[in-house]
Structures are given as structure tokens and as C-alpha cells.
TrEMBL record:
Protein name per the record: Xylan 1,4-beta-xylosidase
Pfam families in UniProt: Fn3-like (PF14310), Glyco_hydro_3 (PF00933), Glyco_hydro_3_C (PF01915), PA14 (PF07691)
Similarity section: Belongs to the glycosyl hydrolase 3 family.
Annotated organism of origin: Heminiphilus faecis
InterPro entries named in the record: BXL, Fn3-like, GH, Glyco_hydro_3_C, Glyco_hydro_3_C_sf, Glyco_hydro_3_N, Glyco_hydro_3_N_sf, Ig-like_fold
Assigned EC number: 3.2.1.37
Endpoints of the signal sequence: 1-23
Domain PA14: 463-605
One example GO MF annotation: xylan 1,4-beta-xylosidase activity
UniProt cross-references to SUPFAM superfamilies, sorted A to Z: (Trans)glycosidases, Anthrax protective antigen, Beta-D-glucan exohydrolase, C-terminal domain
Record keywords: Glycosidase, Hydrolase, Signal
Length: 871
């Protein structure tokens, strides 16, 4: 694949140079000057009102100076998000499970290629709105301290070191190596800091009285790595308060630590709408500030350069007039914003950047999609495999596939996602992998309900396609020509949570839609249409309105029962509009029946293997969602147990005497003690991206030797956890947990067994970065080639109150069957850096340490050696 097509770009560069040489001699237009010089010159030419206009994420054009419109808000959590077609890689938590930061950097180099292509297209078409820019608000490097947090799926797990390494890989892949004249993109480390739920009170929550050692040993290391080592160009502050002060004006976090201690001088952006929380009274905001004027001044003076939203910074002029700040304070932030855009080349130099010549064909190209498959394969964690149930015999006669996630492609995309060219569901992957096998599918159950909808959506069609045709308007009244026409092949489950559009290019507010399809039932009988939405909707069958809820607000599960006749066609039209706030729409048709576990199990009792694909869904866990079900609240979970309906169905399936394989998809750890003990095999696939079905089928068939490792602890019960709102790290994560986990951090099995020899460690005293070299012998004792994740932990024997152990190195190692390899780690001094309780700083102290190494964090399976760090 050639990234760069041969284009006639030389004349473009000459044209820019000629423009500069023929009268437009302002220094800010001179590409030979530095970004700093150009930003200072341009800043000096802006009026006060023009400066203020640049302080929110939507920065309008300033035509007299040639400054184009720009929107800072773009997403690329695991592929370019919300901007149309893109490669959808596995969700961030799944990428963490690969323990392969080199491959993650390659992923985000591909992501940045696709982002640049989309930006180039937007410039050429003069469409410069949201999700079309070069500043990407990823990675999320908050610590996943509690599995109940719905946004934990966006992180790289519970360990500060793993998170740091993955965060650096993302930044490197997005921004480039920093050696060129222009940055490829700008990454954004978020959410700074001490932020990881709950979602339902994030606008009012006050993280206070947190031990200082937890701040420095857990919550800050990944951010420090991003700033100091990764030179990340943006940092996003969090919604919540820390020690009584909102994070987006927190003097300790933004001024003392970020700016002064770490020397950060690039852009700080608020989380979206966060500044509005300052002056909004509880229970809807912090209520810490009296007015918008006070909010604007305090946030800006604290180092917050850019507001996502427009709640406060449009009032900066009034703040200056009131004497709360001065124009020089504003200039400091505007300079940073201008410099960032010059560094990216997106003010006047688009044609001069190395990426202007990227081929449009790079978006979702074959090599990128192959990488998505590779990463999905690497991310799958084999939790158990009793009696070598897996891999399945390729000559197996009959496989039964059940579960709410078996035939759902959208689930695999996670959240903050793009839209792939195509997805392979887990059911489709199994059918393709076992073409000579009878593969039967039965949904079996929904996620949490004791009833199950036997969907008839697959009996709908439009324009020769399965499903419904969807037309969208950028008004509330379905007037004029639609701005977008697309198709939905699965039951509708749409939301604008997290500013997600219903379809590419569709607004997230103030829009309307019409969904059309022809329904032809295979049997006669009653069929129930289910509609739920916020705001208005109406359902028409053969032109007759049967549901009419054309008004603002949320309406839950409105139904209509049709006495359907076999073979007759029914024209179905669902119309919808969004007024303000949340946009939600769910639609399905079929029969909802009470779940009979024994009946379901009896229907698949003749299968040679039963594969149940369950777990959770991004429609249940995520960012500040409107979901309020048993076990779920606002996108978080109130309990971490596998929903009871799935647990009971697994037990009924096991009672058939057939082998039962549980494939669990989720964005977080799930307590499933019965399944862990009784299922013949358990795979955790997280949200595996567009190629998830192929990857899982590869593992089931033995074409892929599973090698993923858990980036989070799987606890046995909700009762194992402290209170969700308690930010103390006591009894959380593998580093502090006092109980026995169901599955430990770093756990993962494969089709090969690996054994570890006695490691050697050699101290170094040459004054270099490394203080010791550790060599670990690893043997693949199995019959199949495979990858092992070698993990190295350090225990500080000088501090009995600190972490039990801390990951300090890891490496994915490819081995052939029967091969022994020596894996060498150069341990830097930072591997022995821990919190000094006397000086209350992170410090490398000479003294005694224990090195633990192996393929898991489980003490019982790790080998150990002693090491004394000399002065």
C-alpha cells in the first residue's frame, strides 16, 4: 500500500510561495518562519472580539485575515469517530488486552492517515464543521479503578504503567515522531485528573480527601508520561471537582502540577460543557462560581485555554471590563491556540504538509481492515478451557449459537466509534469458519429482561436490502430534500449520547428522520411493534397512523399489535424528530414472550457444541446514558454480576450435557463465578471492532492461538468492591485488592503452555538510563506456535503500606512450539520509583526490592528474585 499518491503538489507549494512574494508579506503567512513567530504576529493583528471568538471549540472564520473556520472537537478513540466511514478497530480496553503498544502505535498511525484524508476532503469541499479537523480528543488515560464505571471501556485498564505505555503509543501514532515541520495530528490526554465516574453525578462530584500517595502513584503517572515523554499537544480537564475546586480551574492540577512542575505549555481544553457546571447550582452543577464572568476569568487564569461549548468564554470581554482579568491573560491562551494550528499547518499551509497527497482510498482500506482483524485476534482473552474443549473440531457436525450479542454488529463497535464498510458478526464469523457444519442460531434471551423479543426485523426490506431505509433532515419537520439517506439492517437502537450522530453527517440535535420498510411475515399471528424515543415519533402501517407520540420528552416502550397475515406485505413508516437534549430512538417488531429456559435449552440439546455470546452492550454501559435498568444507572453499573437472565440460561444450556462455550463481550469486568466454574470454556472479547466475528471464530477453530491478557481485575462479586464514589485505592485493582479475584490482572490462557526458567538480573552502574538488565527464559511447551505476554512486577520491600506489586515492564513474545527464548528487559530507574511517605513525592530510593515475573499478576504463578538498588 502506497500512502502517498503522486500528485502535482509542487505547484501548490510554489503558489503559496508566490502568494507570499507578491504582496501578502505579513509574517504570519510566511511558511519559513516558526510556528511561534507566526502565532505572535497573527495574535498582534487580532481584535479583542476576534480573539474571544477563537476561545470555544467552534472557531469561526476571520475573513479579513484569511483565517478559516475550525472546530477543535474530533474523536478517534479506536478509529476516526463520528465522521462517516472509517476502520473500526477494537475498543480501547480491548487494545489494552493486546499488551502490544508497538502494534497500538501502528493502529493509530493508520487512524491518523484516515483522519488526514478526511480533513483534506473537508478542506477541498469547504466543509469545516465538527469531526472534520486535526485535533483529536483521545486517548482517555484515566485509571479504570472500578468496573462499574461505564466509560472504563474507553481506557487502557487499571494499571498506571500499562496505561502510560498505551497512551504514549496512541500519541505517537496520532502526532507523528515530532521531527518534521508539521505535526500530523494533535492528540489530547483526558480527563485531567482524578476522574473515573460515576457518570450520574460527574457534574457535581467532589473527589476529596484522597491520599496524596493515590494521586501520585495511581491517578497521575499516565498523564505525566503523556506530557513529559509523549509531548502531547492537548490536555482535557475533567468535569468533577478535586479537593473542592473544579478540575477545569483547579490551581493544584492545572497550574502547580501541569504547568509548573511538568512544564506543559500547550493547549488545555475543558470537557464539553464543564465550565457551565461552575455556575450551575446543585443538583445540576458544582455551583462554585457566582456567574459566567467569574467562571470565564477563573478558568482562563488557571490555564484552561479552550472551552468546549459556549457557556462561559463568550463572556470573556465582560470579565475584562469587570476587572477580573486583562487582555494579556487572554493573549496567552490565544497564542497557544494559534501556535497549535500553525504546527498542524491548517491555517495557511494545507498544501505544504506531507499529508496533503494522501490517497482517499486509505480510508477503511484493506491493510487497515486487516490490522483491525489482527488486533481483534490479539485482544481475545481465553479465561478458561476445561478439558481442552477448544479449539473445536473442524469436522464438528452441529453448532448452536445463542445470546444477545451473537448477531449484533453494532455492539462490537463500542462507543465513540466510526462506521465501518462492513462488520462480521460473531454468528457470521462462525458460519464462515465452519462451512460444512450445521450452524443454528437462536437468540435465546435479551441482556437483562426475563422476557425475550423474537424479532421479525429481518423480515423487513427496502430497495432490495434487508432492513429499513432511513432519510434524515437537518430540521424538525422532515421538510425539503433529505440531507442523508442510508439503511439500517438491524433493529434501531440509536442515541446522541456522547454527541454520537444517528448516521454520518446527521446533526445530533434539531433533526428529523423517516424510516421505511416493507414487512412480509413468514407466519400469520400477532406481531407487536415496540417504539421508544426522545423526542417525538409516530408509526404508520400501510399509511395509517397506529402510534402517535409527536411531542417532546421521553416515551418508553409504546406498542401496537398487528394481526399479521402470512405472505402479505405491510408498508411500515416510522417518523421521528429531536427537539433538544437527548435524542433516543428504539424500534423493533416481533413477539415478546416470557423466557422459558428449559425450552430454549431443549431446542439446542442435539448440538455438538453450544456457543453462548452474551455479556453487556454499549447501549447499557457508556457515557452519561439515559439507561436505568436493574443493575444499570446512567451508563454505569450498580452491580457487576453477569445479568441473572444470562446466568440462568447458561445453567440451562449446561444441563443439556453438551459442551458450552461462553463468549463474553463487554467493556468492563463481569463477575461470573458460576460460568467461570462450570462452562467448558470462557472467552472475553470485549468490544472487538468490525472484524470481531472473524477473530472469535479463528480462536474457536484453532486458527488463532489466543494471547490476550486482562487489563483489569475480574472480581467475584460486587461485595468485593468499596463504595463506587470512594476514590481511595484501598482494596482496588490488583495492586491493592485484599481478596481473591475471579481472574487476576494479566490473566489469559492459550493453546500453548509457557514455562519460565530462573531469571538473572545484572545491575548496571554506568550512569545510563537503565539501572539493571533482567533476562527471563521463556519456553513454549505446547504443540502450537503462539505469543506469550511476559510481565515484570516490582515490589517495594521498604514500604509495607504501598502497592502489593506494580507492573514495570511487559513484552509480547512470539515463540515456536518447543522453543525457548531469552527475553531481556533493561529496567530504568523509574521501575523503582515509588511514593516517599516522608517527603510526599515520587522518588527512586536505594534499597531492597523484589522482582516478580511470569505470564500473570497472580503471586502463586510468578517467579521471584531479590534485587538491591545501589546509590
Amino acid at each position: 500500500m502506497f500512502k502517498y499518491l503522486v500528485r502535482p503538489i509542487l505547484f501548490l507549494g510554489l503558489a503559496v510561495a508566490a502568494q507570499y512574494a507578491t504582496g501578502q508579506t505579513e509574517p504570519y503567512r510566511n511558511p519559513d518562519l516558526s510556528a511561534d513567530e507566526r502565532a505572535r504576529d497573527l495574535l498582534s493583528r487580532l481584535t479583542l472580539d476576534e480573539k474571544i471568538s477563537m476561545m470555544t471549540n467552534h472557531s469561526p472564520a476571520i475573513e479579513r485575515l484569511g483565517i478559516p473556520e475550525y472546530n477543535w472537537w474530533n474523536e478517534a478513540l479506536h478509529g476516526v469517530g463520528r465522521a462517516g466511514t472509517a476502520t473500526v478497530f477494537p475498543q480501547a480496553i480491548a487494545l489494552a488486552a493486546t499488551f502490544d503498544d508497538g502494534a497500538v502505535a501502528e493502529v493509530f498511525d493508520m487512524v491518523s492517515d484516515e483522519a488526514r484524508v478526511k480533513y483534506n476532503q473537508s478542506v477541498r469541499n469547504n466543509r469545516r464543521g465538527q469531526y472534520r479537523g486535526l485535533t483529536y480528543w483521545t486517548p482517555n488515560i484515566n485509571i479504570f479503578r472500578d468496573p462499574r464505571w461505564g466509560r472504563g471501556q474507553e481506557t487502557y485498564g487499571e494499571d498506571p504503567y500499562l496505561t502510560s505505555r498505551m497512551g504514549l503509543a496512541v500519541i505517537r501514532g496520532l502526532q507523528g515522531d515530532g521531527t518534521g515541520k508539521y505535526d500530523k495530528l494533535h492528540a489530547c490526554a483526558k480527563h485531567f485528573a482524578v476522574h473515573s465516574g460515576p457518570e450520574w453525578n460527574r457534574h457535581t462530584y467532589n473527589a476529596t480527601n484522597i491520599p496524596v500517595e493515590d494521586l501520585w502513584e495511581t491517578y497521575l503517572p499516565a498523564f505525566k508520561a503523556a506530557v513529559v515523554d509523549g509531548h502531547v499537544k492537548e490536555v482535557m480537564c475533567a468535569y468533577n471537582r478535586y479537593e473542592d475546586e473544579p478540575c477545569c480551574s483547579n490551581k493544584k492540577l492545572l497550574k502547580k502540577i501541569l504547568r509548573d512542575d511538568w512544564g506543559y505549555d500547550d493547549v488545555v481544553v475543558s470537557d464539553c460543557g464543564a465550565l457551565g457546571d461552575f455556575f450551575t447550582r446543585e443538583p445540576y452543577g458544582h455551583g462554585t462560581h457566582k456567574s459566567k464572568l467569574e467562571t470565564a476569568a477563573d478558568a482562563l487564569l488557571s490555564g484552561n485555554d479552550l472551552e468546549c461549548g459556549d457557556r462561559a468564554y463568550p463572556d470573556i470581554k465582560s470579565s475584562i471590563e469587570a476587572g477580573l482579568m486583562n487582555e494579556a491573560d487572554l493573549d496567552r491562551s490565544v497564542f497557544r491556540l494559534l501556535r497549535a494550528r500553525f504546527q498542524l499547518g491548517n491555517l495557511f499551509d494545507d498544501e505544504l504538509t506531507p499529508w496533503w497527497s494522501l490517497s482517499d482510498s486509505l480510508v477503511a482500506c484493506d491493510s487497515h481492515r486487516a490490522k483491525a482483524l489482527e488486533m481483534a485476534r490479539k485482544s481475545i482473552v481465553m479465561m478458561t478451557n476445561r478439558n481442552n474443549t477448544l479449539p473445536l473440531d473442524r469436522g464438528i457436525k452441529k453448532i448452536a449459537v445463542l445470546g444477545p450479542n451473537a448477531n449484533d454488529s453494532v455492539m462490537m463497535w463500542g462507543n465513540y466509534n466510526g462506521f465501518p464498510k462492513s462488520s462480521v458478526t460473531i454468528l457470521d464469523g462462525i458460519r464462515s469458519k465452519f462451512p460444512e457444519t450445521e450452524v443454528v442460531y437462536l437468540k435465546g434471551c435479551d441482556y437483562v429482561d426475563e422476557t425475550v423479543t423474537l424479532s421479525e426485523f429481518d423480515k423487513m426490506s427496502a430497495d432490495g436490502r434487508k432492513g429499513m431505509k432511513a432519510s434524515f433532515w437537518n430540521n424538525r419537520t422532515l421538510d425539503g430534500d433529505p440531507m442523508r439517506v442510508t439503511y439500517f439492517g438491524e433493529p434501531l437502537n440509536l442515541t446522541n449520547n456522547g454527541e454520537t450522530a444517528f448516521a454520518p453527517d446527521v446533526p445530533v440535535v434539531n433533526f428529523s428522520a423517516r424510516f421505511e420498510g416493507r414487512y412480509v411475515p413468514a407466519e400469520s399471528g400477532e406481531v407487536t411493534f415496540h417504539v421508544e424515543g426522545d423526542d417525538g415519533f409516530r408509526l404508520l402501517i400501510d399509511g395509517k397512523p397506529v402510534i402517535d407520540e409527536w411531542g417532546e420528552g421521553h416515551k418508553s416502550d409504546i406498542t401496537y399489535v398487528l394481526d399479521a397475515k402470512k405472505g402479505r406485505g405491510y408498508d411500515i413508516v416510522l417518523e421521528y424528530y429531536q427537539a433538544y437534549g437527548s435524542a433516543d430512538l428504539k424500534f423493533d417488531l416481533g413477539e415478546r414472550v416470557p423466557l422459558d429456559y428449559k425450552s430454549v435449552a431443549s431446542q439446542v440439546a442435539d448440538a455438538d457444541a453450544i456457543i453462548f455470546v452474551g455479556g453487556l452492550s454499549p447501549h447499557l454501559e457508556g457515557e452519561e446514558m439515559g439507561v436505568h435498568l436493574d443493575g444499570f444507572r446512567g451508563g454505569d453499573r450498580t452491580a457487576i454480576e453477569l445479568p441473572a437472565v444470562q446466568d440462568r440460561l447458561l445453567q440451562a444450556l449446561k444441563a443439556t450435557g453438551r459442551p458450552v462455550v461462553f463468549v463474553m463481550c463487554s467493556g468492563s469486568a463481569v463477575a461470573m463465578p458460576w460460568a467461570a466454574e462450570n462452562c467448558d470454556a470462557v472467552l472475553t472479547a470485549f468490544y472487538p471492532g468490525e472484524a470481531g466475528g472473524t477473530a472469535i471464530a479463528d480462536v474457536l477453530a484453532g486458527d488463532c492461538n489466543p494471547s490476550g491478557r486482562l487489563p483489569v481485575t475480574f472480581y467475584a462479586s460486587t461485595s468485593d468492591l468499596p463504595d463506587f464514589e470512594d476514590y481511595y485505592m484501598d482494596n482496588r485493582t490488583y495492586r491493592y485488592f485484599e481478596g481473591k479475584p475471579l481472574f487476576p490482572f494479566g490473566h489469559g490462557l492459550g493453546y500453548s503452555e509457557f514455562s519460565y526458567g530462573d531469571a538473572t538480573i545484572k545491575p548496571l552502574a554506568d550512569g545510563g538510563e537503565a539501572v539493571a538488565v533482567l533476562n527471563v527464559p521463556v519456553t513454549n511447551a505446547g504443540q502450537m506456535d503462539g505469543d506469550e505476554i511476559v510481565q515484570v512486577y516490582v515490589r517495594n520491600l521498604q514500604d509495607p503500606y504501598g502497592p502489593k506489586k506494580s507492573l514495570r515492564a511487559f513484552r509480547r513474545v512470539a515463540t515456536r512450539a518447543g522453543e525457548t527464548v531469552g527475553v531481556e528487559f533493561a529496567l530504568p530507574s523509574a521501575a523503582f520509583e515509588f511514593f516517599d511517605r516522608e517527603e510526599e513525592v515520587m522518588k527512586v530510593k536505594p534499597g531492597d526490592y523484589e522482582i516478580l515475573y511470569g505470564g500473570t499478576s497472580d503471586d502463586a504463578l510468578l517467579k521471584k528474585l531479590s534485587f538491591t538498588l545501589k546509590k
